[in-house]
Amino acid sequence: MSARKLTRLALLTAAALAVYVAEARIPPIVPIPGIKLGLANAVTLFAMYMYGLPGAALVAAGRILLGGFASGGFSMLLYSLAGGFLSFFAMAALIKPLGTRFSFVTGAVGGLAHNLAQLVAAVAVTKTPELFLYLPALLVSGAVTGAFTGLCAGIIAGRFEKYWL
Amino acid sequence: MKRFLPFLTAVILLTGCGNSSATREFFAMDTVMTLTAYGSNAENAVALAERVILFATIPGETKEHEQMLQIAEEARIMTGGAFDVYYAGAEPDFGGIAKGYAADEAARIFRENGIKSGLINLGGNIYAIGSKTNGKPWEIAVQSPFDESKIVGTIKLADTSASTSGLYRRGEHIIDPATGLPAHSGLASVTVVCKSSAIADALSTGFFVLGRARALEVWRENRELFDLVLIDDDGAVAVTAGLEKSFSSDGGFATVNSGEIGIFLDGELLHSVDLNAVTEPYDLPVGDGNVVRIAHGEVYMLSASCRDQICVKHAHLSADGRRDGDTPIVCLPNNVVVKWL
Q1: Which pLDDT score is estimated for B59?
Q2: Are residues B70 and B176 in the same domain?
Q3: Does residue B332 sit at the A interface (CB-CB below 8 Å)?
Q4: Domain match, B193 and B58 both
Q5: Do the chains contact at A127 and B267, CB–CB below 8 Å?
Q6: pLDDT of B293 over the 70 cut
């Protein structure tokens, strides 16, 4: 890996972490655990478009681990990892066929996968199957917020292709 | 000739699939009664059931009246006197129990005659025998007490009965034995689902007098015996826990729980509390960072050490089902869960 690429990945990780911490400061609008904008995911998706999957995986893993240490305990880190893992693979499968033009679809699928994995992890950790009552709300919010962050990532990646590589 | 066509087609359809059926409609106890049975012995069963129902309506010192008095006494005790066949004096008035009793008798005749599928409808008292011929449960509609052309929801019944009392055409005549005046407790309609239609009939009358809160108290002590569909004057619909799966409504409804909640830390049950037994509110610390406030019929997260405070903002869990209290209160960062048991 070139020093240039390493630096840019580190920069993206820092940006993702900053977005993540900033977002965590916003009080939740709906009192349902797991509903949030997920802006840090936009950085992951952007990294996928710009640097390919291995680079993006480093950004995502770095952000989740550092964010987990910075805020919340072990269980929150576990939920972040579960959500991040599944959404990464879901989006990774879609970026090639859909490209930046349909980034909102990729983002929506990523949001869905993220919330689904988090919910399954939460049910397992808390041993509370009743949490599945939140599934419809989490799927809808995951798709909507995911589409928004996907759109952001797609627009930014589209602009950067011209100037940054 | 033309008007007989639908009827003829129906007969052909019913006999065509190798399953005979019989229906009988007649007028008794001021109401239209319909008996429907399926199976080889259907004709015989409905004829016998009709005779038994008509016989049960004859006044006098009969075995039937003695049985009704016994059931009425059970219902009087359960409802604390809100159902009382002696409200008018020394002569019992079986108006609030006779149709239910007749439905039980008809159900007994159906079963004795090997009927596996049938429906007994004695004007507000319904007994479902077995399931429909296609194996699915019978589904009965609960009429709206505000507009009788509309339905509030449907209940799936299999080998059980349902009885409704309310502000329907005849319902305004339900008398409160305590005052001797027409009852008005804030309930617009009560449906009781019970294996005994006589008990369902008597309780629905009594609960209409008692009102929501006291009806639910009786239910909590007799949860194995019956379940309820309650419609308030403001149109709010609530069902007791046993009907959560079998009741469906387009307008939405609340489920009334047992009143028992569990408080879990790291997936382990720490405390279980019967909210209806709580008199004075108190606070329960859970783990390192959460405090649960427990009050009569209500529980919520008072405070939490986590940043998002989602569990503190969660709707209170309320035992009377009036609020949206079905989802558990959960604090993911501290792994604390409060939910109905």
Answers
A1: 67
A2: yes
A3: yes
A4: yes
A5: yes
A6: yes
Residues of B in contact with A34 (CB under 8 A): 332
Q: Between chains, do B264 and A126 touch, taking CB under 8 Å as contact? A: yes
Question: In this complex, is the C-beta atom of A75 within 8 Å of any C-beta atom belonging to chain B?
Answer: yes
Tell which of B231, B256, B281 closes a domain: B256
Nearest one of A144, A87, A48, A33 to B313, comparing CA atoms: A33
A 110-139: CB under 8 A from B: 122, 125-128, 130-131, 133-134
**Contacts A71 to B, Cβ<8 Å:** 307
> On the CB side of B117, how many CA atoms lie within 13 Å of its CA?
16
B103: which DSSP letter? Answer: H
Q: Mind listing the pLDDT tens digit for each residue in A28-50?
A: 888 888 888 989 999 999 999 99
- CB contact under 8 Å between A31 and B310, yes or no, is yes
Average pLDDT estimate for B278-307: 90
Question: Domain tally for chain B?
Answer: 2
Tell me what ipTM this predicted complex has: 0.81
Cα separation, B48 vs B162, in Å, equals 22
Domain boundary among the residues B212, B233, B256 is at B256
**Would you state the structure tokens that stand for residue B135, as one six-digit string?**
């194996």
| Structural domains of chain A in order of their starting residue, each with its CATH number | 3-163 (1.10.1760.20)
Same domain, B167 and B277: no
CATH number (domain holding residue B283): 2.60.320.10
pLDDT digits (tens, 9 = 90+) for B143-180: 898 888 889 999 999 999 999 988 776 545 677 777 77
Coil, strand, or helix at residue B270? Answer: strand
Does residue A9 surpass a pLDDT of 90? Answer: yes
Helix, strand or coil, per DSSP, at residue B21: strand
pLDDT reported for residue A65: 92
- Search chain B and give the residue with CA nearest A33: B310
Record: contact B326-A72, CB cut-off 8 A: no
Closest partner CB to B330 (pick from A24, A33, A73): A33
Residue whose tokens read 């699939």:
B17
Query: Cα B105 to chain center, whole Å?
Result: 20
